[in-house]
Amino acid sequence: MNNKFKLDGRMFINGERVQAFSNEEIDVIDPSTGEKVATTPAGDAPDVDAAVQNSLHAYKNEWRKVKPLDRANILFNIAKKVDENREELAYIESLDVGKPYRQALQDVDSTIGYFQFYAGLADKVFGTSIPLGVGTVDYTVREPIGVSAQIVPWNYPLQLSSRGFAPALAAGNVVVAKVAEDASLSILRLAEIAYEAGLPKGVLNIVTGYGAVAGNALSEHPDIHHLTFTGSLPTGVQVMKTAANQVTPVNLELGGKSPIIIFDDADIDSVVNTAASVITQNAGQTCSAASRIIVDRRVQDEVVSRIAEKMGAVQLGRGLDNPDMGPVVSERQMNGILKAIEKGEESKAQVVVGGKRSEQAGLENGYFIEPTLFNNMKAGSFIEQEEIFGPVLGVMPFDDPEEALEMANGTKYGLVASVWGNNLKLIHHFTNEIEAGQVFVNGYGAGGGVALPFGGYKKSGFGREKGVEALQNYTTVKNIWINYL
Ligand code: NAD
Fold it and tell me: If I label 481, which of 147, 156, 326, 376 is the partner at 20 to 30 A Cα–Cα?
């Protein structure tokens, strides 16, 4: 089919589109049809090295010398230009990832939000002054760390890249990113727009390629100063070990198995809407998606039947046709989800709705999975413990609030949690005791807005993205002591 906008998969080094030195390429597949729509270079260690050396040069000779307010103005201009290219970016993201076009538009709006938010902070990265008495002045400055390396996954390319790029650039760092082999086109277009908006050459380099090759080369590079990794737990562990050899500090933003806890006095209308929509957003491929429902047994039947009704009514279709839910990103991802569903059935949890690849006419070649609801999911089973990263939700009943708390905290992850009810004492008890980086009460933000700090407890990672907190990742403290007597 003809694409409405140009799809250019080439990498960005020194502000120019380039191929890999090897000229090897990776096919870019439309997950709605299984067809190849473009290619992107298979970057390798020499490409990563070229990008890092260029970034280092841009840091020392260019970006470090730009005044904070001037950096702010460039970032504001990037936000403006992203807005001007809103439809093109959403089109590319929807085609590449498979997500419904309107969700892709929301992702573009978040991208604008990130650049605006951190543009506003660029000249407010304050230090402190420490009183030591007459004769001595002591103060701290927060300096940029230098070359910020960022490894980005495929599920929200625009949001997750701008979540790291904007604070890093605002604080005075340069960025070299390795984007995901499964979806990178919208980030490459974002980089192009950033250059059109006045970003100096080399300040944002983007390398494409496979994780084990280009991603690994970036993690082990001696000339990066910090590494932000967003992706799965096993890869995060691998990246952290590799970075340790160079004493490179890392931020890990990993997976989740986030719960929604429903007390019997909760607003059931509201919570069932939320639960069904959160797990089908981006076909369940959201790190902060709620994939476990922990419900008071007295309202379990009502909650299950109403969520099932909603999940069963979800219309599947090609992302660009704006369905309720699109395909998952790749055949590999689809097969992993189907295997997890099989394991759920083996554990004797009951499939209430869905449970298989979609057989809908016209979708045969795409990677479509029916929204799937399990009832009476077993504590400790695979589907209860492991991140499935697809439209699969499991329900577990509780009889006592302490049992609910134990279930909520009963996985290795701790990204987001949500509690629904109106007993103030119980709600506060849960917000205190839940092990998660974000807790929502009578709502669910799937990561929340740009201003809310976001990150993991336990094996969901460490460090915080978003909000003012993210600037901590991208700055380091220098203490200056002056004797004037
Ligand atoms: P992934 O770990 O397979 O890949 C993430 C990135 O790492 C990709 O760019 C990949 O190419 C790269 N990579 C793979 N192997 C590598 C290696 N050996 N060395 C260096 N880089 C390597 O994850 P994914 O499947 O792309 O993304 C899904 C995962 O990301 C889920 O677990 C999800 O929860 C998590 N995620 C977390 C957040 C968050 O903010 N906490 C946000 C989005 C996604």
Answer: 147
The Cα–Cα gap between 435 and 258 comes to 10
The rounded Å distance from CA 309 to ligand 1 centre is 32
291 within ligand 1 shell (Cβ under 6 A): no
CB of 317 closer than 6 A to ligand 1?
A: no
Looking at residue 128, its pLDDT comes to 98
For 96, the 3-state DSSP assignment is helix
Topology (CATH level 3) of domain 258-450: Aldehyde Dehydrogenase; Chain A, domain 2 (3.40.309)
Q: List, for residues 153-176, the tens digit of each pLDDT value.
A: 999 999 999 999 999 999 999 999
**CA-based R_g, the chain, Å:** 23
| pLDDT number for residue 3 | 83
Catalytic residue flag (residue 342) = no
User: For residue 404, what pLDDT is reported?
Assistant: 98
CATH superfamily of 11-254+463-479: Aldehyde Dehydrogenase; Chain A, domain 1 (3.40.605.10)
pLDDT digits (tens, 9 = 90+) for 439-449: 999 999 876 78
Q: Is the CB of 414 under 6 A from ligand 1?
A: no
**DSSP letters spanning 139-192:** EEEEEE-SEEEEE--SSSHHHHHHHHHHHHHHTT-EEEEE--TTS-HHHHHHHH
**3-state SS assignment for residue 219:** helix
- The answer to whether 119 and 75 are in contact (CB under 8 A) is yes
> How would you classify residue 376: left for phi > 0, otherwise alpha for psi between -120 and 50, otherwise beta?
left
Look at residue 1 in the predicted model and tell me its pLDDT: 58
Q: Which of 26, 40, 110, 155 to mutate to test the pocket of ligand 1 (most atoms within 8 A of CB)?
A: 155
Q: Which atom of ligand 1 is nearest to the CA of 218?
A: 20
Q: Please report, for the chain, the start and end positions of each structural domain, with discontinuous segments joined by +.
A: 11-254+463-479, 258-450
Cα(251)–Cα(19) distance, rounded to whole angstroms? 29
pLDDT for residue 448: 75
pLDDT-based confidence at residue 373 (cuts at 50, 70, 90): very high
